[in-house]
C-alpha cells in the first residue's frame, strides 16, 4: 500500500469516527521495550551505530563531529 492509498483511507474514514479509531488502533506501530529501534541518536535520530557508553547516546557519525566539543581527544 502506498502513501497515497493511506491518504485516501484517512479521507474516507474521517466521516466514520468509530472505524477511524479502530483503524488507528490496529495499524499504529507498537511500543517497543527492546531492540535496535529503541535506541536513537540524540542529534540525528539514527538507529544504527549507536554509542550509549558514558550516557552519550550518539551515532558514530555525530560522535566524530562533536567529540572535541564534548571533551574527547583524538590520538594518532
Brief summary:
43% of the residues lie in helices and 5% in strands.
What can you see in these coordinates?
With 76 residues, the chain is mainly alpha-helical. It folds into 2 domains: 1-30, no CATH class; 32-76, Ribosomal Protein S14/S29 (30s Ribosomal Protein S14, Chain N). It has 3 helices and 2 strands; from the N terminus they run ααββα. It has helices at 3-13, 17-27, 60-70, and strands at 50-51, 58-59. Strands 1-2 form a two-stranded antiparallel sheet. Strand 1 (50-51) and strand 2 (58-59) form a beta hairpin.
Tags for this entry?
two-stranded antiparallel ribbon; single chain; 2 strands; mainly alpha; 2 domains; 3 helices; 30s Ribosomal Protein S14, Chain N; 76 residues
Q: Give the percentage of residues in beta strands.
A: 5-15%
By helix and strand content, what is the structural category?
Answer: mainly alpha
Biggest sheet, in brief?
A: 2 strands, antiparallel
**How are helices and strands ordered from N to C?**
HHEEH
Q: How large, in whole angstroms, is the Cα Rg?
A: 20 Å
Tell me the strand order in the biggest sheet: 1-2
- At the first level of CATH, the class of the largest domain is Few Secondary Structures
In round numbers, the mean pLDDT is 86
CATH third-level topology of the largest domain: 30s Ribosomal Protein S14, Chain N
- What percentage of residues falls in helices of 4 or more residues? 40-55%
Low-confidence stretches: none
Tell me the total number of β-strands. 2
CATH architecture identity of the largest domain: Irregular
Task: Tell me the number of helical segments per DSSP (H or I, 4 or more residues long).
Answer: 3
